[in-house]
């Protein structure tokens, strides 16, 4: 029995035995394992390993997946008289060793003997007299296997003082790799006893260093952030500090073998506590484990950095979007009887029975010096296009109906064939552009011809009148008032021609009218160049809000899409805040959902929910600079308003003015006009109403823009809002 190799498990022994009864050749390789406290019966490794020739000097891989050995067997590319290193791989499926393979990358025409595979499984030591350089006889060499390519490095002589001019053979190293045990025929050391004495040598160890890189970046933009850095080795207590700035964006800390404590403890991993602080962010602590740097026996290699670890600490947070939504009136009314809706927080689109009165301004305005009807007015091309038009089917609000002014008069004239009108052409009589011959006549004529040619109104029913300034002149001391005098007036004593447009259809209103988005950038405000809120409903892009500033914490929104429309189904809103940084990066918040609830009048009837009618009446064409109602408004109040003021009604009277004239004067005028309407209601009803309030807001709460003359006329109004429970009208 001869050369042996014990496996890494400490329980398995591979060895050489010669001239055994079960042997296949001179010397074979065997395996035995410990059974209890004794070695078991040795087993011959079989014909894939052993031959009729000589096999010896086994070295087993730490995982017992490969066996290296020496042999003079047939099959060597250098003949059977020299000794080569061979190996066999273990076949897990078959449960046996695969056929032996000559290690041609290592073997030479000389002799290669006593292989030893190190604890890493890839470093092979062996003795050879065929490799160069050679100090004499058998020298020790080392080669390394690349597992990825399955190729061996070129063998290197391990050098003096291990190798000598005599033979060196049978090398072995413990797993730590810091001691070499070997045999040699050398005679240069005291105490040698004879042939192939055993020797040992200590391997000098040099430890490489590692670099710990620390960066601090913004969570969203990934831009570097100034921060104070504190690093503590939790094993040794070593502390390192540094400050990151706009110009210095990385801290480097050198990790040495000393960071792993007492070498006797063989600690493989040390934890480093990394703390980053910035006054504008929350303090962040990160624990970073670092593996012990490798050792080397090459002093020059120790000067090289073994590797680096980069720790990127993120501070701040992504943008955050939230909502502030007032409780809908509908929810307030039903939550006691419908607990499922008690916590509802979103948009309610409630359909309400409405009565809306739209006063009809009987003025058509022209541009300076022009007798062409402006494009904002809606005109038909022929009498054929008028078919199906009525004054009660015009979509939209007050101005939408007003721009059908000529069509409304045409429709009513045809409906009431005995009615007559007067068409009065006017100009401002002040500006150079308006002092054109026949300008007033041309303006009246184009209106006259439209009603005649398109609506088929007979000449005998239309009187054409021409003048400079209108009979009721707008303020000539104000440029806005002057513009208002460039008009055609349509007059009639017939109420059916001049009466307001009245709608009695259910309408759907949003509750609440607006909501607030709460916006938090999450990053430093200085890094933000713009923001937007993207709103969708299902797969439909609904609205993108871009005028939200860069630091404003709240944005008020009216629920409408890009076309000014409200939702018509229950698909919820989804909103995200997108913040664009000064680097061009986009930081996106988590999405939030806002529910939508459509409530129809039919639903409320089925569920027996208390409902109300909502009525809106507007009074215009008050006598200039006066608060008395005038004949048209008195007729509207008498025919429409007074009878709708019930003992259970909630009534609101609001006076408005435009911006022509002095602010304080307009404020007082709006209050007096509101008071006129209020007094009329109280007198007629004898005060038998539920709740009634009045106020004048002057110029402060305009119902329309004050840019166009018709907008200013419609702003000179008293608005009456009546809400009455259904069934109590």
Task: Provide structural commentary.
With 729 residues, the chain is mostly beta strands. It folds into five domains: 4-204, TolB, C-terminal domain (Neuraminidase); 207-315, Carboxypeptidase-like, regulatory domain (Immunoglobulin-like, Sandwich); 318-359 and 500-606, Immunoglobulin-like; 361-485, OmpA-like domain (60s Ribosomal Protein L30, Chain: A), CATH 3.30.1330; 611-725, OmpA-like domain (60s Ribosomal Protein L30, Chain: A, 2-Layer Sandwich), CATH 3.30.1330. 14% of the residues lie in helices and 37% in strands. It contains eleven helices and 47 strands. Strands 29, 34, 35, 43, 44, 45, 46 and 47 form an eight-stranded mixed β-sheet that branches. Strands 1, 2, 3, 4 and 5 form a five-stranded antiparallel β-sheet that branches. β3 (27-35) and β4 form a beta hairpin. The N and C termini lie far apart (119 Å). The mean pLDDT is 90.
């Amino acid at each position: 029995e001869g050369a042996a190799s014990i496996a890494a498990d400490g329980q398995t022994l591979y060895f050489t035995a010669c001239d055994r009864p079960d042997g296949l050749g001179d010397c074979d390789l065997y395996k035995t394992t410990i059974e209890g406290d004794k070695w078991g019966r040795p087993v011959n490794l079989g014909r894939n390993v052993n031959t009729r020739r000589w096999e010896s000097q086994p070295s087993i891989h730490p995982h017992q997946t490969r066996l290296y050995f020496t042999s003079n067997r047939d099959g060597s590319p250098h003949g059977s008289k020299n000794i080569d290193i061979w190996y066999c791989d273990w076949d897990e499926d078959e449960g046996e060793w695969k056929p032996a393979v000559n290690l041609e990358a290592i073997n030479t025409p000389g002799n290669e003997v006593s292989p030893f595979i190190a604890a890493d499984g890839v470093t092979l030591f062996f003795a050879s007299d065929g490799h160069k350089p050679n100090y004499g006889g058998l020298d020790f060499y080392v080669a390394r296997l690349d597992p990825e390519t399955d190729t061996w490095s070129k063998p290197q002589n391990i050098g003096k003082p291990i190798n000598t001019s005599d033979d060196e053979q049978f090398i072995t190293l413990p797993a730590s790799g810091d001691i070499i045990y070997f045999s040699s025929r050398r005679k240069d050391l005291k105490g040698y006893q004879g042939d192939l004495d055993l020797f040992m040598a200590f391997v000098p160890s040099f430890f490489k260093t590692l670099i710990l890189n620390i960066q601090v970046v913004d969570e969203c933009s990934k831009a570097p952030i100034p921060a104070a850095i504190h690093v503590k080795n939790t094993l040794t207590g070593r502390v390192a500090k540094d400050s990151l700035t706009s110009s210095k964006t990385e801290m480097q800390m050198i990790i040495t073998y000393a960071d792993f404590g007492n070498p006797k403890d063989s600690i493989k991993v040390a934890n480093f506590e990394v703390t980053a602080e910035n006054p504008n962010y929350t303090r962040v602590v990160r624990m970073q484990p670092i593996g012990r740097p490798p050792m080397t026996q090459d002093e020059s290699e120790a000067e090289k950095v073994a590797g680096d670890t980069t720790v990127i600490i993120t501070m701040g947070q992504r943008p955050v979007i939230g909502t502030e939504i007032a409780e809908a009136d509908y929810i307030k009314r039903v939550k006691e009887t419908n607990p499922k809706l008690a916590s509802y927080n979103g948009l309610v689109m409630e359909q309400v029975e409405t009565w809306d009165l739209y006063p009809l301004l009987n003025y058509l305005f022209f541009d300076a010096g022009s007798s062409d009807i402006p494009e904002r007015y809606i005109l038909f091309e022929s009498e054929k296009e008028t078919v199906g038009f009525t004054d009660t089917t015009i979509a939209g609000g007050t101005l939408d109906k007003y721009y059908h002014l000529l069509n409304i008069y045409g429709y009513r004239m045809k409906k009431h064939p005995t009615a007559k009108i007067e068409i009065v052409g006017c100009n401002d009589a002040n500006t150079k552009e308006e002092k054109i011959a026949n300008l007033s006549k041309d303006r009246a004529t184009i209106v006259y011809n439209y009603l005649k040619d398109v609506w088929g109104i007979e000449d005998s029913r239309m009187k054409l009148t021409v003048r400079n300034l209108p009979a009721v002149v707008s303020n000539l001391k104000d440029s806005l008032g002057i513009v208002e005098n460039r008009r055609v007036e349509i007059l009639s004593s017939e109420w059916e021609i001049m009466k307001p447009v009245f709608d009695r259809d259910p309408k759907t209103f949003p509750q609440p009218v607006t909501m607030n988005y709460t916006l938090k950038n999450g990053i430093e405000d200085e890094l933000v160049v713009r923001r937007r809120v993207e709103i969708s409903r299902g797969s439909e892009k609904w609205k993108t809000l871009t005028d939200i500033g860069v630091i404003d914490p709240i944005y008020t929104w009216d629920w409408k899409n890009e076309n000014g429309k409200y939702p018509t189904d229950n698909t919820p809103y989804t909103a995200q805040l997108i913040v664009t940084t000064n680097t061009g990066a986009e930081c996106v918040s988590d999405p939030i959902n806002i529910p939508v609830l459509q409530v129809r009048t039919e639903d409320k009837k089925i569920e027996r929910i208390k409902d109300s009618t909502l009525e809106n009446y507007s009074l215009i064409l008050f006598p200039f600079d006066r608060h008395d109602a005038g004949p048209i408004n008195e007729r509207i109040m008498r025919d429409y308003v007074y009878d709708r003021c019930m003992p259970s009604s909630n009534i609101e009277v609001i006076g408005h003015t435009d911006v022509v004239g002095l602010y304080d004067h307009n404020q007082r005028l709006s209050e007096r006009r509101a008071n006129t309407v209020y007094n009329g209601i109280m007198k007629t009803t004898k005060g038998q109403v539920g709740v009634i309030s009045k106020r004048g807001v002057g110029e402060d709460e305009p119902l329309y823009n004050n840019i166009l003359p018709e907008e200013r006329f419609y702003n000179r109004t008293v608005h009456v809002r009546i809400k009455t429970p259904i069934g109590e009208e």
